[in-house]
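Below is how a single chain appears once it has passed through the pipeline. First comes the sequence as given, then the structure the pipeline wrote out for it. We keep one example in the README because the format questions we get most often are answered faster by looking than by reading.
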Amino acid sequence: MSEDSRDDSKFDLPLRGPGNAPERSRHRFDTGPDWSGERYLGAHPPRGRSFRPLVWLLLLLVIAALVAGYLYLRPVPATPAFDPPALEWAELRVGGASDPATVEITNVGERAMRLDSIAVSGEHRDEFEVVSESCTGEVQEPGRSCTVEVRFAPREMGQRSASLELSGNLVWRSPELSLGGLGIAPRVVLEPEGVEFGEQEVTRPSESSLVRFVNAGTDTLEVRGIALAGEHPADFVLEDRCSGRTFGPEERCAFRVSFAPRAAGPRAAEVKIETDVPGGASIARLSGTGLWSGPSFTAEPASLDFGDQRIGRESRPRSLELVNRSAAPLSAPQTIAPAAGSGFRLAGNECAGATVAPGEACRVTLAFAPEEEGRAQGELTARLDGDPLHVELAGRGVAPALAVDHHELDFGDLRLGLRGAPLWLSVTNSGNSALAVGALSLEGKDAAAYRLARDGCSRTSLAPSKSCSVELDFGPAREGRLEARLTVPSDAAPEPETVELTGRGTRSFLSVLPSEVDFGTVIRGDGGSAELQISNRGTARLHVQGVQTEGPAAADFAITRIGCRLDEGLAPGERCSLDLEFRPRDDGARIATLHVLHDGAEGRRAVQIRGIGAPPLPAFDVSPAELDFASAATASRSGIRTVTVRNGGKGFLELREVTLAGPDATDFQIVAGTCEGAPRIAPGSECTVGVRFLPQAAGSKRAELVVRHNAPEGRGRVALSGQAF
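Resulting structure:
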């Protein structure tokens, strides 16, 4: 190439045409001057052409970047999508935690998605927590999803917000899910925050002051308790009407406090309001100054009355406090025991050698053990720097006394096996102190015959003039006089009170004659009778509750007469007759048992009764007993003569056969009557049989009409006679 052509810095770009043969393009590209040759060494390039190579270089870089970006972004890179697009929590109490909320993350790109981390960021990130997730460490193919669970736990009131950030093989900047919630809580505001009571005389309460509080928060306030606390809580009095209640936002409540200083000088305390507000109780400060011009120590209470106390027993210890009313700590006073013989004694002394702070106290314990009934008085004296402090002591000695309203109980006569009507016994405390009744018991050789049916006294305590009662009954097991005693122990006396018990056991005995009854054979429809004699062979009145029959044929026997008033009972040795009837309802042996129910020994008496039932029999009766046909010509036929058959018995009469018998039976003929259609004849019914005379030869003719039946005789006969000529 010539030097001129190099200076022009142009070249032809060979292109291929349709015939694949290279050909010169008509376009020429100006490549610019050649700055590599020796011609321009050490010289500056021409100003008009200095930026042309740089422009072409930048153009090529842009084209390369576009091509690379296109190739990188196709297919579409992994792209996460959130469902729901944001997580919002409703109101939640500060200090609480919500249930986990779930967000689904779906890969909506065309490449696989890999998440390396999921984190919460933002202003309130500490109040949101990822509880669980199934995304990190897993590759999500296009269209696949994973889940993340997030919990909201507000720490302060107001709107709280944060973001859920993802990191991984994501082309675009890290995607974020908006998180939000509202924290709510109650808040206590005191009005006023403290009370200054000023100067107040010791032990005298001031006028009360009102302290209000309002729920200035956004949630319900629960007041769990309001109490005095601090340095001197005993110097202040609280009137609380707010504890145990709940208050909505902006609702108020008030309580009152007053100042009753226990000692001179500055006194302070606080009212502690325990609520469900996070962060602890709310405090209202209380202060005041006590004024005191009396002795350094006073007694609380100023006197002790032990009330009623059982003689010989010591009371429960009672405490007495010596309170320092001054404004400085003091040594406790020296105490002196009560005078001997009064029944009072010093049971404990916590004041000896003690230093007592202002408003505080030391304790002295006393007891009372009276030796006799009546009012007792004493005195406790405490000395400090020569000034005595006197405390009056009082009490009363008392004792119980047991009294019963009966010292003997007689239950009278009672049959063996029975329990008599109960008798009541009353136990009264006739003393002036509580009576402790022990366990009542029955003693003696016949104690088993008596019973405490109702015990309202055992192991009870009776106040003075009060009573209890017991119910006893008697149930003898043998005849004769039965003795026992009831013991009533108590703390009124070393020995128990006793009540003598007496009663007599008697019994009645039922005798029935005969012990068995046999009626023999009795035809059904007829009846047999027998007499029973019952008597009381005992020593007590006998009562018969009833007479009944049992057994397979009990219905065949019945009592038809009772010769006495059984409901009035039988005196010892008294008798009564019973009529018993047997009417069999079926044939054969009929057996039953007659029971006489009574309140005597053994309770019932059985009598065996029996009989035989026989069927009712028919009675065959025929009339006339003889038929005389007089005379008739040979080979002639007489008129029909009628024989009447009647059943005179109680059973059905069965006609088994009607025939003719005798030497001339052929000269007579049986003609059908009403008996032919009625083989069974009911009791009292009848039927007829016809007979005709048919002599075959001359002469006197005799025969019999024979009727065979089921009556006892078995056959009936009617004589037949006639004369043939």
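The chain is about 5% helix and 55% strand.

See the next section for the split statistics.
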